[in-house]
Amino acid sequence: MTELVETSLNRCAQIERHVQAFAHIDAAQARSRAAELDAMLDAGHQPRSPLFGIPLAVKDVIDVAGMPTRAGSRLFSGAPEADHDAAVVRTLRAAGAVLIGKTHTHEMAMGTVTPTTRNPHDLTRIAGGSSGGSAAAVAAGEVLGALGTDTGGSIRIPAALCGVAGLKPLTHSVDMAGQIPLSPIADSCGPLAANVRDLSVLWSAMSGRPATAVDVDRLGILSPADLGDVESAVGIAYEQLGESLARHSRVSSVTVQVPAFDEWYPVRLVPLFADAYQAHRAAGWYPAGRGLYSRGLRAVLDAAAKHTAADLLAAWKTLTRLTERLMAAFSVCDALVLPTVPTTAPLRTAVADDSRPRSELTGASRQLTRFCAPVNWSPLAAVTVPFGTDERGLPVGMQCVALDEERALSAARLVEGLAGTY
């Protein structure tokens, strides 16, 4: 186990100054844990989990005992080390995982950039957010897996932009105790890994359920009109995926209709921001620490403070109708396959500057969350997998959306297998 951990720490030492995936690395804790596991093996212990001795990273909104939780926010810049593990971290430790450190997040897990972290495929481009550090750490080979959180695409967006796999589970299927909330009604915690096999192992440990493949015989795809405007490389990859599915002997593909993705954007922000406002106010962070928030997040909370009950009721009515229309697609398919994001990784200079006009930053967020966010407001799970690259070598991601994690993982495994066929 010590050898695995030293390999991980050496890789961090080589590349971390370039990628900046980690907010905190605790080499001493990792080495101590590896030594404990080695001693257990020497004493004849038989590992019961494939995670035994595996180096993992944890997004810096999730508590890890002995490490600070600072959430990418000045509000917690002097936060002490956590006294206790988050519930999900306790589960992974019990499986024998070795925690290397905490990964950078967009401030308070609200954002699609993660400004500190760079994309390992091109350091001039963003890793995505808000779990950008977790995605970059896996993509750069610093760890074999990582934890992230997802409220509007925050696992899937950076996973797609960095060329790794990521699972957004059903909301509340993972115990969220010990995590800084963004929107408790939509937050979920899930794993990132290099491929679907490793992702399934992580999910099995997190959920306590065996990694069992299920049959997915019917995959839903969207027409070009429903897909809307996407970058050329993404559109070509999706078209090729559809053609590969049409030739597949074991599954059938069916074109399904879903609500226009642009219909979700303005209305979903009302309950999201209102829930974030309530969570931050209840914790005593806002408005007391208002001056320590970034301009963007401060504006979000200020606006949410002005929402009325009528605003929320109208938004929920619209969201309910949209969700019902989206869920209807699953009466004719086992999983829906669509791009994770409509573009490959944008340049850092295009989206990472907090001094730019908020309208420009909001436009980037709207684009990157377009295909992901509706899943968070529906009883659905989703897995993103790499599916080729653009002409610059930047990864393209496809996501498989289903009624539960097992079906989403099974569909993703199939799509992953088709990635090299075009």
TrEMBL record:
Q: Which Pfam family is one of those matched by this entry?
A: Amidase
- List GO molecular-function terms, semicolon-separated: transferase activity
Q: Which UniProt keywords apply?
A: Transferase
Please give the PROSITE patterns that the UniProt record associates with this protein.
AMIDASES (PS00571)
Question: What protein is this chain from?
Answer: Aspartyl-tRNA(Asn)/glutamyl-tRNA(Gln) amidotransferase subunit A
PANTHER family attached here? AMIDASE AMID-RELATED (PTHR11895:SF176), TRANSAMIDASE (PTHR11895)
Residue span(s) of domain Amidase: 3-403
The answer on whether this UniProt entry bears the keyword Ubl conjugation reads no
Checking InterPro entries in the record gives:
Amidase, Amidase_CS, Amidase_dom, AS_sf
